Amino acid sequence: MPGRSEMVRRRVIPLSGVLTVVAAVAILLLPQAATRSAVAAPAPGANPTAQPDYEYVYRVANAVASADKLVSGDFDVMERRDGNDLFVLGTAADGPRLAKAGFSATVESARPAASWTPPKPRLSNDHLSPADVGETYYGGYHTVNAQYAHLDQAAAQHPDLATTVTYGQSWLKSQGRGGYDLRAICITKKQAGDCQLNPNSAKPRFFLMSQIHAREITTGDVSWHWVDYLVNGYGTDNTVKALLDSTELWVVPVVNPDGVDIVQQGGNSPKLQRKNADGDPARCTVSGGQLGVDLNRNNGSHWGGASTSTGVCNEVYRGPSQDSEVEDTALQKLFTQLWPARRGTGVGDPAPADTRGVMMTLHSDASLVLYPWGYDSTVHTGNDASLRAMAKQMGTITHYDYGQPGAVLYDASGTTDDWSYDKLGVASFTIEVGDETNGGCGGFLPPHSCQDSFFWPKMMPALVYAAQQAPAPYANH
Ligand SMILES: [Zn+2]
User: Is residue 302 located within the same domain as residue 158?
Assistant: First the structure.
């Protein structure tokens, strides 16, 4: 995690990037930014003390065994673990709250909270234009519309390789309140019948998805790089050519566009929205509470178990019923159109050795490779040896640890990868994209320069490896 000086510096440096775009706004903000920079953030390891408008990361000692107590206390438990310590995101008020709940917490880091309105809140892709491909926030991260324009650009420039698919609507759009389409791209050297919504496809399929948790902004950038790598590399890179000749590569860069819109509206100080936008924001006035359903707790696979909450403002709110959220049901439908169901219903039933396909969902920032079951790490899947072997290999490539979630992070139920493995038997993984070196690219909001310099070089070979397993993930391990 960055230290105090890094936190203060981050606040100032991104503003320079905005000057060229919205000079007047930035100039107006500079005095405020300077004032804020002069306010000392608490030093790491200090006891929680009041800086009311700061966002804090608390290190909670020996909390792994009490993870559910943190969740039920409406603490925002981050996807990070160090030994038996867990990490909580919150405000100044959450330090005393943690102490009152019996936890031993220290301030790991802090940053000024969002304090200004960005230039272009969108909340819709109804007027998407090719020029939107250049729309960014926070030093280079791509907005929802930039991601969608990027898919259109790839398809327009490489009609022999790329096909875009609209597979549903976000919650806001389904309610007629703005919102976004849900969009995917299929990349392959197209033959007749490729990229059709037909589970009995000629080619095996590798699926990459990101930003189901909106604030995990690194993940969307990894997908952006992956799309470019595939469409631009076909003519020059033998690895890419072999992949596209043999496999369909599907990408959903923004699973949760309503949530990402909230994040990007923070501009240079992105809002840390995790969930979708389903709900009434006026109900969530408790410290740190957000509206929305946690889309990675809502799926109908062991729904309502570990690391979930019935509290509508809780960060792991599971939703009123399983599969209640349109972002999840649309994704599930897409999965069933891409892969046949190959697995029985028992938790130990294996998918057969000739099962095809790999599903990869990206989160941040625990620096881990995870595989089912997420709901209970004491229960192993019938394909455990294969999943474990592939996760180990990806761990070797990325220098990340690997395991079932409960073994290396914490149990979590109703997740995407539990669902796709449970219902279809697809080899499913989560990579928690993080900075295992503690070299300044950690957290939800790493400087955008970390994407080219650190994350993409790390993730590219891991994704290539995962995609190369799509023909026979269970036969070769
Ligand atoms: Zn996540």
Answer: yes
Residue 71 lies in a domain: yes
Q: What does the pLDDT look like over 316-352, one tens digit per residue?
A: 999 999 999 999 999 999 999 999 999 999 999 999 9
Inter-residue contact 62 to 85 (CB < 8 Å) = yes
* Residue 407 backbone phi and psi in degrees, to 5: -80, -30
Residues 281 and 324 in one domain: yes
Quote the pLDDT of residue 198.
97
Considering its fold, how many domains does the chain have in total?
2
| Predicted confidence (pLDDT) per residue in 242-261, tens digit | 999 999 999 999 999 999 99
Question: What's the CA-to-centroid distance between 364 and ligand 1, angstroms?
Answer: 6
Which residues surround the ion ligand 1 when the cut-off is CB under 5 Å?
A: 213, 216, 363
The Å distance, Cα 213 to ligand 1 centre, comes to 5
- Which residues, given as ranges, of the chain have pLDDT below 70? 1-53, 112-122, 285-288
CA pair distance 99, 110, nearest whole angstrom: 18
Task: Note whether 138 and 30 are same-domain residues.
Answer: no
| Ligand 1 center from residue 345 Cα (angstroms) | 26
pTM score, whole prediction: 0.85
Residue 175 and residue 217 in one domain: yes
Distance 245 CA to ligand 1 centre (A): 32
Q: Ligand 1 center to residue 400 CA distance, Å?
A: 16
Judgement on whether residues 93 and 200 belong to the same structural domain of the protein: no
The verdict on 354 and 272 lying in the same domain is yes
Distance 79 CA to ligand 1 centre (A): 6
Q: How far is the CA of 86 from the centre of ligand 1 (A)?
A: 15
Does residue 341 lie in a domain region? yes
- Spatial distance between the Cα atoms of 190 and 286, rounded to a whole number of angstroms: 51
3-class DSSP state for residue 113?
A: coil
Domain termination site, one of 58, 83, 112: 112
Residue 208 CA, ligand 1 centroid: distance in Å:
14
Task: Report CA(294)–ligand 1 centroid distance (Å).
Answer: 9
Is the domain of 96 the same as that of 235? no
Cα(368) to centroid(ligand 1), Å: 12
Same domain for 391 and 318: yes
Phi, psi of 62 (to 5 degrees): 50, 45
Q: Where are the alpha helices (DSSP H) in 39-121?
A: 67-72, 94-100
Residue 106's domain comprises 4-112
Task: Identify the sign of the CA torsion 52, 55, 61, 66.
Answer: positive
Domain assignment of residue 120, yes or no: no
